[in-house]
Each structure stands twice: as C-alpha cells, then as structure tokens.
Amino acid sequence: MKGRFYAVTGAASGIGQAVVVRLAELGAAGIAISDVNTVGLEATKALCTGFKTRTIAQKVDVSKYDQVQQWIQYTIDEFGRLDGAANVAGIAGGTGNTTCATMKDSDWDAMISINLTGVMHCMRAQIPHLPTPGGAIVNVSSTSGLRGLPHNAAYSSSKFGVIGLTESAAGEFGSKGIRINAILPGPIDTAIFRDGEKKGLFDSGAISATTLLGRMGKADEVAKVLCFLLSDDASYVTGGMLVYHILIYPKTLRINH
Ligand SMILES: NC(=O)c1ccc[n+]([C@@H]2O[C@H](COP(=O)([O-])OP(=O)(O)OC[C@H]3O[C@@H](n4cnc5c(N)ncnc54)[C@H](O)[C@@H]3O)[C@@H](O)[C@H]2O)c1
Fold it and tell me: Does residue 257 fall inside a structural domain?
C-alpha cells in the first residue's frame, strides 16, 4: 500500500473506519474518506494522525450519484491518482415483523439505493480512474448475501446484489488488470449490529454461538482481510468472495416466525 491512494466509503465508523486506519498503518500515501456522518469522519481523521498518510474527508451519500462523482473527482484533483477503493457504506436492520407480504416501498427503496445502487455508483465513478493494470476494489456484502434472512429481505437482497455486481464488474475489467472482489462479513461488533440488537432484532450472544469461532468479529479483523484483497498479495484474486461462514442464521433472530 506504500505510496498509493485509496477511497473508502462508510469511513466514519465500524469496518470502514478500521479499513482507513489499516491503510494508514500499511503506509498509504493518501486516503479519501467519505460518509454521511461528518462527526465520525473527523474521528477517523484523528485516528490517522501519527501516520504519514494524508486523509481528505467529504460528506457523501452513496445513493446520490452526483455526490459520489464529485467526491471521486475531488480525490483525483487532490491526489492526482486513485489506486484502489473500499466500498463499505451500508445500512441494515429489518423492521420487526416485516415480511415480503408487508414490505413498504420506502423501506425497500432506502435499503437498495444505499447498499446496492450505492456500490454501483461508487464503481462507476472509481473504475475510470484506476490504473490498468493494478487497480483494485473491494465491495462489502454480507453472509446475508448468500443466504436469505427472514424479516430482512431488503437487506439480504441488497447484499446478494452486491455479489452479482462485483462478479459482473470483475469480468468486465479483469482483462485490463483491475481486480474487484467482495467480502462477506459475519456478525461484526459495530454500530450497525448493536443498533439492530437495541431494536430487538438480534441477540449477539445467540449469534456468536452460531459462528464457527464462537464469537463476533471485530472491525479490524475484517479490515486486515479487506486490505489484503486490495493489496498486490492478492494479485491473482478477482471476482472472488471472502466469506465469514456462520451456521444456522435464522434461528438466531428474536422474531416470531
Ligand atoms: N457489522 C456486521 O455485523 C456486518 C455484517 C455483514 C456486513 N456488514 C456490512 O459492513 C458495512 C459496514 O458496516 P459496519 O458494520 O461497519 O456498520 P457501521 O454502522 O459502523 O458503518 C456503516 C457506515 O455507513 C455509513 N452510511 C450509511 N448510509 C450511508 C450513505 N447513504 N452514504 C454514505 N455512508 C453511509 C454510516 O454513516 C456508517 O458510518 C455495511 O455495508 C454492512 O452492511 C456488517
């Protein structure tokens, strides 16, 4: 990562913030960080002081293409190049007992526009600037992108979509030497997860018991693997999915079926 420039969405907290810190630790020359949460972005910038990395922060809603496009143009204007990107921003949370028979268009649209269309917006803006060969993107999906999650159909569908988008883009740009992969975290102890728990949607103890390692993951444990996929050590990995396997997901939900 030394001397290279990256763009990270969802950088104000959790996995995105941990990715930024990891890139700084690994010697990235510059990181363009974005999120809708500007207070969190300042906290992420502060975590990077002491490293030789220049961070530039911008408020960006990934569901709005004009904002994403302006952010990436600003990144190029400031850094002069972009070597890779981590598209991490996302929202989660079902709405209690919502089913596919009671889904509101507004809930569906909000989830898809951020988690799925947001990733498409990012890749559309980022790919034209990446070096050929050598550019790399990692998109964050979820274990719910491989297995449907009752009462969370919009979330699960958005994460299935991220895998399709990633594989399609990898096929389009592999011949140019741009690698595009997806990472599918299991339960990771971040705000998105704890917020769901507060709403009564999850039980972290029960979910931990369904993981192969018997515990929730930490954001930096995902960040290290994500940065491996961004690095040249993963030079022959594209269109791939790095999956944090879990066991029987639906049984861990606290919802009446
Ligand atoms: N924590 C988990 O258990 C888990 C598991 C699987 C996948 N994921 C995925 O990991 C990614 C990161 O989540 P996290 O666990 O770090 O949670 P988090 O809530 O800490 O981070 C998500 C970030 O995305 C930002 N965000 C939300 N909407 C946005 C928008 N419209 N535009 C730009 N930024 C926006 C939030 O402000 C927040 O900073 C998400 O895509 C999530 O779906 C998380």
Answer: no
